[in-house]
């Protein structure tokens, strides 16, 4: 694979850099690069800025209002955005429910929902996991009973990221309890302002509020908000999870954090020598960097497959496994490099990130499950 950019691609990279420099405040970029908090307004403002430029859907085809960029341009945009410290684009709309609606939704749903994702008007949440239904997602119990022209939804979803900001949530619900568990699931789009929807915060170890419980009590959802066929939701869920696992790879973010790690480890220590000069520590950093380079190449292959309108295959599981492992390894090395400074107010973000990233090997399908998928589909075991 030739990893050298063409003259046109280098020109595009320069355009992306110039646009970020002109449109993302320096203070916001500093907060991102130092691991600080990104607010809801920051995220929405950046999405709206990109939308005005025509870049609101970097991974979307032109027919649905996206950029139509090839895999290399998608890669350049994401890498430059991460390196510069822009707010992360919200994946729940752009990389999860958006592609599902494009592939399985009807024309009315595409016209109604897709433009509002691009413009930043709608903030989506993912309603998959439940108490007792995580890696075994098909065991979910949230029910949706059809009554005339609407469904009545009852149940609970948990670990719902940023649901406190969401205007819509896409949910897997059980519509036929009498059949095989994978066969009785449907994919519903639910307005978070509906009567009977309750969001309850889950406070994390560092005191932050990132995830939530979402309760549904006799929530009425119009039948027109059913994506695809009733009881066909498991097919759409697997399609979405492949895109989610590709997104979890987080190559651009890991490259940014690796650079941050090297900077911290290069600072003078009490003994007068930077930690990065310690052979053992330097070897660990080099190992992570080599693995990240391999992940980057695999990620480009998956992007190329998507450009040919092919869904990510089992390689999406490999991206998820290695991507999460690399993120965790970098955060662990950064905590080591920060040492006692991680307990200071300035270093608290390093410790908080370390704790937060313990979850990456679990969500989106635990790494153990992904290894089983790889063994079955790639190795034929």
Features:
alpha+beta, 12 helices, 8 strands, 14% strand, globular
List the helices and strands and how they pair.
Blueprint: H1 7-23, H2 26-33, H3 40-53, H4 71-84, H5 91-104, H6 107-118, E1 124-127, E2 143-147, E3 150-157, E4 168-174, E5 185-191, E6 197-203, E7 209-222, E8 226-227, H7 233-248, H8 251-266, H9 279-307, H10 315-338, H11 348-356, H12 367-377
Parallel strand pairs: 1-4
Antiparallel strand pairs: 2-3, 3-7, 4-5, 5-8, 6-7
Helix pairs in contact: 1-4, 4-8, 4-9, 5-6, 5-7, 7-10, 8-9, 8-10, 9-10, 10-11, 10-12
| Biggest sheet: strand arrangement | 1-4-5-8
Overall mean pLDDT stands at 90
Number of helices: 12
Let me know the largest β-sheet. 4 strands, mixed
Q: Structural class, judged by helices and strands?
A: alpha+beta
> What is the CA-atom radius of gyration, in angstroms?
21 Å
Name the shape in a single word. globular
Helix and strand run: HHHHHHEEEEEEEEHHHHHH
Distance between the termini: 29 Å
Number of strands: 8
Helical content stands at 40-55%
Low-confidence sequence ranges: none
- Which band does the percent of strand residues land in? 5-15%
